[in-house]
Amino acid sequence: MAVASIAHGSAHGDGADQLYVETRELRLQGFLLFLVSDCVLFSSFIFAYLYLRNSGQGWPPPGIKRLDVAFAAWNSVLLFGSGATMHYALENWKHGNFMKYMWMLIFTIILGAGFLGGQAYEYTHLIVAEHVSWWGSGIFGASFFTLTGMHGFHVFVGVCYLTVLLLQSAAGVYTGQKYFGITAGTLYWHFVDVIWVVLFSIFYLI
Amino acid sequence: MSIESAQMTHAGGIAGHIHPEPQGFVRRYVFSIDHKIIGIQYIITAFVFFMLSGLLAETIRTQLLNANGGFVSPETYNEVYSVHGSAMVWLVVIPLLTGGFGNLIFPLQIGARDVAFPWLNMLSFWIFPVAGLMLFSSFLMGAPTAGWTEYPPVSLQGSAGTSMWAAAIFLVGVSSTLTGINFVVTLVKMRAPGMTFTRMPLFCWGQFATAPLLMIATTALAAALAALFMERVFGVPFYDPTKGGSPVLWQHMFWFYSHPAVYIMILPAFGIISEVLPTFARKPIFGYKLIAFSSMAIALAGFMVWAHHMFTSGLAPYLQLPFMILTFAIGIPTGIKIFSWTATLWGGKIHLTSAMLFAIGFIALFTCGGITGIFLAAVPYDLDVHGTYFVVAHFHYVLVGGSLMGVFAGMYYWFPKMSGRLLNETLGKIHFWLFFIGFNGTFLPMHWLGIEGMPRWVATYDPQFEFWNRFASVSSYVMGIGILVFFVNVLWSIRAGKKSGPNPWNGRTLEWMIPSPPHYYNFKNIPTVYGLPYDFSHPLPYTGLEEELTDAPPALAAGAH
Predict the structure, then answer these.
(1) CB contact B8 to A (< 8 Å)
(2) Pairwise CA distance, residues B406 & A124, whole Å
(3) Residue in chain B nearest A142 by alpha carbon
(4) Class in CATH terms, B37-543
């Protein structure tokens, strides 16, 4: 018994640390479940889109041009690149390379903001040059702007969150083993990436 | 030794962590983070909405006293049944069974100090009354008129209140999703040492099967509601066929949520029944694992049968058949439960308390509702009675005869744990018999009204149906009086009921091992569990509970980290 408690103590430090470790497990699981339910939200809209798309009038519907794959592909590279930099940010944190972590986080924020800029350009082009709108272009506009807009909103939230994370890290909020905020940010960012892989495939490729 | 070291590892963690007791009325009873208080808040709020929706129900029955109606205008009648259905599902039954009894009881039963995220729990609760007020306030701007299912295109053309309805149900959904996440994490991570999954009380299994449904299915509904809201408010076409949308899309998305939702409304009630029956039959529950796992099977299969609500919506015949067969298949795990409950009663020493009466009434009425469910799953029969009163009879047998009877059983059973006082048994039995007789008088005739072809959702009807409609209406008043007796009982017993002591029913689950009402920290020491709670005549399978009923302070000082 004594051995068990000593081993335990050396692994997690005192009671306050252990409380943090146990709470972190709860938060991690809760956060993953939140991502699952968020995933269901996207899946439902994706189902709606595919259902409407296959309802019989051809795709894209008459009078609407196909989406520009090349531009969206370059824009996607920004988002996927930010997934990589976020991964290295967390890895550097775990290995104690604080400055590298900070730089990787900054790159991630820049790339994420760049993706949002690209999406804003694409929206403007569609609305102004091709007269496609959210409410005025039938189910094409409805499904495209709703789904990519939802995703864009998730990216926007992510960029804000990562910016807060950056400021908190600079202020020394996260130390040693206490970095759940960074883990959560990374998970969320990868989640947003994966959703984009699906959206890119079903809107631009097929 | 392994158990002792398990306790050691908990000593500094969550199990050993007691927050300082909140001080002041607001922090204790209004914005409380204590799962027991939040559970009671849910129960009180839901019963207020229950009274309002019950008044709407009596309005419906009063309108149908005469074939020509005349009590309210047809437009108002549409609003009344739409809000009645929506409120009963989202503001009464689901919050009572998950947020209410779920919060109140299962953390006690697994030996936890609270749920995993107490602040999130408080947020979940406070979204709920706001959403409820939004739903009822839709009457001010013209309430929704397309029934609780709000099928487009009618819901697209409905008055402004329909958008309010969509927003309100969306908010209730957010609350449910957060509750679901909270419950899953609590059940997976915060069970007392020694309480393996297969030693959990069956009420916990009911919640464990329900919580993922809350978390996953509700989000699908959120998407459907968001699309309806966007279409109504911003004109974004999803469901309008004149703009390329599809009304059937709504039906798919709605039922992908709402079929699991019927299991959200029944699985926790199954849990309550599985606690009440062994306690008052003084006999181990029959088929513990079968009851537990069949709940999970029902939860899983619930996601694969949604289109059986859509047999008349132009579903392809090759899709109808698998949905029909899968729906029949859900009868198997449900039948296993009914069998296990009756086998639990078999040869038991049955105490006919009010809680037990409601539990036995539940078995009878739920079985009737389940059997008509099998009828309705059969495509040819469904094509015949779809949209008739047969469907109304079916879902009231499972929702009122099932879920609500379960709620009442739970109220009589756990009221002492909430308040420290027993509900009056005489009034309880009067409540049961008025409710049981009134219920059957109201809804049994609807089966043959439906078979003879009386449609749902109509404010006037063919005079040949008048006799049984009057019979149903008068019976519904009897049921209403029964519910008033219940409210009188609760209000009277809170002040003057008999003191219950910690364990009035000789229950064996963990919530009965601590005082009534429990301390805010639940347990002075987190107990260790060695077996199932249902082995009557064996010693209790817990250690570490010696100090719970004494005046000793909790082992860890409040606020100790």
Answers:
(1) yes
(2) 56
(3) B236
(4) mainly alpha
